[in-house]
Amino acid sequence: MFKEINLRNHSSLHKLFYSLAKAANMIVKVKVDQEIDEFNMLATTSSLAVISLFDVVACILMKKKNFNKKNFLANHPSGDVGERLNKEVS
Residue 33: what pLDDT? Predict the structure, then answer.
């Protein structure tokens, strides 16, 4: 059912992204002209840009789906997040 794609091959990766883009209703391109390091090699700025975009998308979807703390707790039952939510939800 699934075709193996060599992600190290730039052409295969381009074909994968092109297929996904064709099937999508919307495409959001995140472009960073310069990374923060002087050699422009560390993916710090671009990583933060992508993470920020996905955080915004997640927050919008949570609001749209009426996602509440009880739902959040189901996904994060332990650790600091789970402990905090257990106190608030109970």
Answer: 93
Alpha-carbon distance of 70 to 55, in angstroms, equals 19
Question: b/e per residue, 29-61, with b = 16+ CB within 10 A?
Answer: eeeeeeeeeeeeeeeeebeeeeeeeeeeeeeee
Helix (H, G, I), strand (E, B) or coil at 83: helix
Residue 60: predicted pLDDT: 95
CA within 13 Å, CB half, 66: 0
Residue appearing with tokens 């074909």 = 15
Which residues, given as ranges, of the chain have pLDDT below 70? 1-10
pTM: 0.64
Amino acid at 53: L
Residue 70 and residue 76: Cα distance in Å, rounded?
Answer: 10
Pick left, alpha or beta for residue 52 (phi over 0 → left; psi -120 to 50 → alpha; otherwise beta). alpha
